[in-house]
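Late entry, protoporphyrin IX containing FE complex.
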Amino acid sequence: MAQIPFEKNLDSTLALIGDPYRFISDRCRRHRSDLFETRLLLERTICMTGPEAARLFYNPDLFVRKGAMPKAIQKTLLGEGGVQGLDGGSHRHRKQMFMSLMSPAQIGELTRLTAAEWQARMRAWTSTPNVVLYPEFQRLLTRASCAWVGIPLADPEVDARSRNIVALFDHAGSVGVRHLWSRWSRKRADRWLANIVEEFRSGRLHLPEHTAAHAVAWYRNPDGALLAPQVAAVELLNLIRPIAAVSVYMIFVAHALHMHPDIRDKLRSGDDDYANLFVQEVRRYYPFFPAVAARARRTFELNGYKILEGRRVILDLYGSNQDRRTWEKPEEFEPERFCRWDGGQFNFIPQGGGDHYVNHRCPGEWITIALMKQATEMLTQQMAYDVPEQDLQIEWSRMPALPRSRFVISNVITREAPWATATT
Ligand code: HEM
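Prediction complete; structure with ligand written out below:
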C-alpha cells in the first residue's frame, strides 16, 4: 500500500497557526497531492483539500465528528455537547431542530430586526467623525440576534454581552491572553443562557412560543429527554454567536465594495440577481473558517492509501474555494463567475459541504446570505460615506482574518438626508 505524503517536521501546529488559511493548500501543492499527513498538537493528522476530498469527508460511513475538535476549540468557539460533535441519528434529530428555524418567514423576521438596528446606527454615524465598522456591526447583530432568538437583552447589557459573544469567535483561534478571555467568555455565556433556560422551564420567565429559544428549551432528544440546561445554552449560542459573526463577512462586503468601485456602481441600481452573485463571491474569495475536523469511522482504503480507524482528518475549506479545478483565476474577485457555477455541494464550501439535513453543513447559510445582501444594500443604496486613509491589508495569520483597520468610514450621509457630496 502507498505511503501518504508526510511532512518531515516533528509537528506542524506552529506553521498552521502562522498561516491558517493557506497551510493545507500550500503543502498539498508542494506534495502534488490532495492529501498529506502531519502532526498537529502532536497527533497524526491527515490534511485534505479540493472537491473530491470534500465529497469523501462528508461521507458519514467514512468519518465521524465525535472527539475530532481540539479541546481548545470546544472550550471557546463551539462549547461542549452541541450539535457539532454528534453523529448518526442523534445528529440528524438535533439538526432538524436547527433547520426548522430557517424558513423564509423566520429569516425575514431577522432581517426586519437587523434593518431597524441599521437605521438607528446609521443615524448615529452621521454625527460621528470616524466610524469603525467591525465593532458597530458586532453590536448591531448581537442586539438583533438576541431579539430574534428570543433572549431578553436590556440596553445597558448590550456592550458587555456583545464583547462576550464576540470573544467566542474572534479570540478562540488566538494564543495567550486573548484565548483565555475566550474561555472565560464561554463559561460566562453558557451560564447566562443556562439560567434563562432554567427560569423558563420553571415558569418564572416567559419566552414567546414562535422563538428559537422556545424551540431549543423544549427540544427533546430521540430518547425523549430535554437537553441539560448547559447543552441548551450551547445550542442557543450556536444561533446567537454565528449571527454576530456575520459581522466579519459584512466587513468583507465593505472591503470588496471599496476595492471594486465598478462593482459598487452596478450594485447601486439594486439588481437583486447581481447582489446574489456578489455575496457568493465575497464568501468564496475572502477567508473565514480555515478548515473542519473529523475522525475515520473505520479503517478504509483511499486512492491506494490506508486510512486507519480513529485517524484525525481535516478538510481545507478556504483552499477548496480557491481550487483551480473548479475556479478559473481564483485569485481574482469576479461575481459573474457564479453564473457559471454548477451549484455543487462539494466545490464551494465556505460554510461546509454536503446536505444541510444529513451532514454538518452550516444551517445558517441562508441567514448569512440574507444579512450580507442587506449590508450590501445598506452600504450602496441607503448611505454614502468616505473611506479615509487606513491600513486595509488583511491579517492572514489571524482567525478570523480581518482588515487591519477593521474598516473605518467617515462623512456618513444617510438616504434620509440629501445625497450631498460624499464620494464613495
Ligand atoms: C458567519 C458566517 C458563518 C460561517 C462562516 C459559518 C461556517 C460554518 C462552518 C464551517 C460550519 C461547520 C461545517 C462542518 O462541520 O462541516 C458551520 C456549522 C454550523 N453553523 Fe455556521 N457559519 C456561519 C453562520 C451561521 C449562522 C448564521 C448560523 C445560525 C444562525 C450558524 C449555525 C451553525 C450550526 C448550528 C452549525 C453546526 C451544524 C452541524 O454540526 O450539523 N452558522 N458553520
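The longest strand covers residues 408-414. Will revisit in the morning.
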